[in-house]
Amino acid sequence: MKNPIISVIVPVYNVEKYLSKCLDSILVQTFSNIEIICVNDGSTDNSRKILEQYKNRDSRIKIVDKKNGGLSSARNAGMAIATGEFYSFIDSDDWVEPTMLEKLYDNATTLNSDIVICAVHQFDETNQKFDDSNPYYTLGFFDKSFDNRAFSYKAVKPFIMDVCVMAWNKLYRRSLIDECNAKYPDGYIFEDGPFFFSIFFKTQRVSIVREFLYYYRINRKNSIIQKAGKKFLNVIDVVEMMYDKIKEIPDFEDVKYTFFRKKVEDILYRFQNLHPKYRQAFMTKLKNESSLVNDELFPPSMVHGRFRYNYFLFCNLKTGNLFYYQFQKYKLKTMYKTMEFLYNDPPFYTLKYKTHILKIKKRPNILDMYYTDDKIYVRIFKKIKFEIPFKFSELEKFNEDD
After folding, report:
1. pLDDT at 226 over 70
2. Average pLDDT, whole number, for the chain?
3. Cα separation of 169 and 164, whole Å?
4. Measuring CA to CA, how many Å separate 169 from each of 23, 118, 387?
5. pLDDT number for residue 401
6. Out of 53, 204, 216, 248, which residue is the most buried by the measure of CB atoms under 10 Å away?
């Protein structure tokens, strides 16, 4: 048998409910010169039996058995035995279009690309609906000038942190991965970023296919992301790994703010979804180990626009004091929402408690509230007046900044 052109690497761990759909979508690929390396990462359900059944049906399937070590170690184990000229990673709870590999390969050979990226459908497991609203997955950040050509990271500097780093909606030229000695960080979740940037900055030839060829299952019960456990602390380590890669490029100063903003938002998102019992440990780790808390590397002077809100939360998060963070978060959120409400000058005030809603018409002779000059003003019976200073006065500039 001739050597396969594409090695499809499928990490498998306790996905008996989804595995058949995934494998079926790979076996019917219109590009057939492939090997399918299924890495059984210590599954304890029927996943291993399902793999064996499929292997008996199709000789292109290879099974690698290993102790459970996580997604990174499973992908690395697959790459270690792969023989193809290109790699494709497909997660075992997802599925792909029958033409995915053919279209990515045709694009790679036509444009001589080292990395080809396609658009992704998100499929929500909870409501069984597709969501194509996120430009991160739909390639919405790429305008038409990126079609039918190869480009380097320099072309995407304005939105470099909005390039999808996920492993699975891509075709990778093996020689590039070997040249960079790229591996997924073993033992970590959120592992895609360090791997992607370790090769993305080393090539001049990346291209895109705008078609939706990959189906990404989200909100899957019992997934690591859904559990939001202690592993979520990995996001701090992974951000550091990404920082180590991106700070080496000559254009670092050009993308520094974009990197900082995106990673602050990622950390806040993971923290806010983290199980409460791990939040103090998260804050301590952030305070002691993250470069993002270094005001000399990332000075407050570069913060502007709507990002000020998240930056303020991040500043409180990096104090390491959980109670202080939570107090400041709710205080800021209340003030921000109040300011935004008053800034829009509503005709009446709306008070809501559970299902009860009370609307009070503005009556300047009795009660009036308004926002201006960095302050919220409250006036009662015209004579009694007090003010609350509030710093974020750039609402009218948000659209310009963002």
Report:
1. no
2. 89
3. 9
4. 16, 6, 53
5. 44
6. 216
**What residues contact residue 378 under an 8 Å CB cut-off, 6+ apart?**
367, 368, 369, 385, 386, 387, 388
Question: What confidence tier does 69 reach under pLDDT thresholds 50, 70, 90?
Answer: very high
Picking from 174, 8, 163, the residue whose alpha carbon sits closest to that of residue 94 is 8
Contact 162, 48 (CB under 8 A): no
Domains and CATH numbers, the chain: 6-223 (3.90.550.10), 233-320 (no CATH), 342-401 (no CATH)
Q: Tokens 């970023």 — which residue?
A: 193
Q: Could you give the percent of the chain with pLDDT greater than 90?
A: 69
Q: How is residue 269 written in tokens?
A: 């998102």
pTM of the entire structure? 0.82
The encoded tokens of residue 183 equal 């591996």
| Tokens of residue 237, six digits | 């380590």
Instruction: Report residue 398's pLDDT band, with 50, 70 and 90 as the boundaries.
Output: very low
Is the separation of the CB atoms in 88 and 110 below 8 Å?
A: no
**CB of 220 within 8 A of CB of 93?**
yes
Which band of pLDDT confidence, cut at 50, 70 and 90, is reported for residue 46? Answer: very high
Residue 316 contacts by C-beta under 8 Å, 6 or more apart in sequence?
324, 325, 328, 329
Q: Is the Cα torsion angle 208, 211, 212, 214 positive or negative in sign? A: negative
Three-state SS for the chain is: CCCCCEEEEEEECCCCCCHHHHHHHHHCCCCCCEEEEEEEECCCCCHHHHHHHHHHHCCCEEEEEECCCCHHHHHHHHHHHCCCCEEEECCCCCEECCCHHHHHHHHHHHHCCCEEEEEEEEEECCCCEEECCCHHHHCCCCCHHHCCCCECHHHHHHHHHHCCCCCCCEEEEHHHHHHHCCCCCCCCCCCHHHHHHHHHCCCCCEEEEEEEEEEEEECCCCCHHHHCCHHHHHHHHHHHHHHHHHCCCCCHHHHHHHHHHHHHHHHHHHHHHCCHHHHHHHHHHHHHHCHHHCCCCCCHHHCCCCHHHHHHHHHHHCCCCHHHHHHHHHHHHHHHHHHHHHHCCCCEEEEEECCEEEEEECECCCEEEEEECCEEEEEECCCEEEEEECCCCCHHHHHHHC
